[in-house]
Amino acid sequence: MSYLETSVATRYPWYIRLLFRLQRRRYGRELEPTRLWGRTPRVFLAMAAMYAALDRRSSPLPPALRSLVQVRVSQINWCAFCVDLNAATCLKRGITDEKLSALPQFAESTRFDESEKAALHYAEAMTDSNRHGEASPVARLKQHFSDDAIIELTALIAYQNMSSKFNAALGVPAQGFCTARGRAASRA
Question: Which residue segment(s) compose the domain that 29 sits in?
Answer without folding.
Answer: 14-54
